[in-house]
Amino acid sequence: MISMPSSQTRIVITGVGLTSPNGNNLAAYRKALLSGTSGVSHYHIRYVGDTLAGICDFDELKYQRRREVRRGTRAGSVGIYSAREAVVDAGIDWDAIDRSRVGVYVGVTEHGNVETENEIYEIKGYDYDTSFWSHHHNPRTVANNPAGEITLNMGITGPHYTLGAACAAGNAGLIQGAQMLQLGECDLAIAGGVSESIRTFGIFAGFASQGALASHEDPAAASRPFDQDRSGIVVAEGGCLFILERYEDAAARGAKIYGELTGYAMNSDASDFVLPNPDEQARCIRMALDRAKCGPDQIDLVSTHATATPSGDVQECAALRRVFCDSSGSSVNPELLINNTKSFIGHAMGAAGALELAGNLPSFDDGVCHPTINVDQLDPQCELPGLVLNEPREVKSICTILSNSFGMLGINSVVIIKKV
Prior knowledge:
The chain is of the alpha/beta class. The chain folds into two domains: about 10-250, Peroxisomal Thiolase, Chain A, domain 1; about 265-420, Thiolase/Chalcone synthase (Peroxisomal Thiolase, Chain A, domain 1, 3-Layer(aba) Sandwich), CATH 3.40.47. The protein has 14 helices and 15 strands. A ten-stranded mixed sheet has the order 5-4-6-8-1-9-15-14-10-11, with helices on both faces. Strands 2-3-7 form a three-stranded mixed sheet. A two-stranded antiparallel sheet has the order 12-13. Helix 3 (about 75-90) crosses helix 6, helix 7 (about 170-185) packs across helix 13 (about 350-360) and helix 10 crosses helix 11. The model has no long low-confidence stretch (mean pLDDT about 95).
């Protein structure tokens, strides 16, 4: 291991574990993205009724016993599955590793809503007698639960915590893992984001009250960022956790390297509870570029955050123009490609940024940019040079990816990954 890590220490991704509405490993997920396969389907949830959602279908019992699943949370199961799959993907000898030097950093949008809603619903049938309240409620609802469940399942005695960063959380988990490796607080980081959002009716009711919940007769066509007829967010669950290592450690063990985290940034809009601020989004992108010592003309692929809300998509596109276009509106890099992943799976909240980055990582090897689907009529306010719409685009090479994730209360995050 490196004896004196620093902020200059190179951090690389060596493993990817995920469950998404259209795939339970990176290969299946990537295949779905390139074939235009949506993971959105009909969904019914109490009080709200029939709606649409991105629903994961993974084997909870692959790494947990039934008793553990019953005692824990959906977010915990998503996290355990993703973390275990990431370790396997990274080729790590788990029995030989010093687990006191493993850190777990999991981004979440919210946690505890599901369990509290369920308990209130149950005691309603007993005239709200709290003696029927589950004694598992408190450990289920503490904010560190998803990360903590991972450590319990995997015997990790290093640091663990969650990062509440709204829908920027997947990137926040990745950034935190990298920083802790650079500080020498751990020698291996399991980092990314998870979400159990579809299990709480409050999320759906809240977006519906804002007029921001998508509807469509065809579930696969419901999530439609940049489209003139977009109607809002499709709520999704999911998880994606990366294995992060110092470059020297990964190279020494001959690890497969997906890419290097060369730049990142987080900032705040400080302007509105829900409406994004393109000035601050653009500043966040520039901050990440500065950290990566990279010009906007050196980015090959931009993964957008766009959620298919009328205002949010327009504001992000405005931010992207300020960074990646010149005064005439032309791209500073004629080869730049821009895509969106929520059009396939919906908005996975705390897991969104991590899942969206993961879906684009294979482009380093196959030279293909997956598209944004469901764009039948591009909104003129969302027009950008380089948008890849409805069909994948093959190019000579993709060497640098920039991935945006933004969230409520004006939290912005950007990560830049470079091919090694």
